[in-house]
Here is the input.
Amino acid sequence: MIIIFINNNVLERRKRLGLTQAQLASSVNVTRRTIISMEKGKYTPSLLLALQLAKVLETDINNLFWLGGGESEKK
Here is the structure.
């Protein structure tokens, strides 16, 4: 089986705009913990949340999230 990951630039975009995790979380109505998990690659947002993040972070969704991985899972 091939495992696909969704990579993101949330941390980089947030810092570039000078936003704290709490400010970003408040802007998209999620918890700070959600933002932390997303920045660490441990949480994949819904399409709606991804679109909201792209808007707040002033970028295109394709620049914020992209597919990665593609390695075979070891059994």
Notes: The helical segments are 10-16, 21-27, 32-39, 47-56, 61-64.
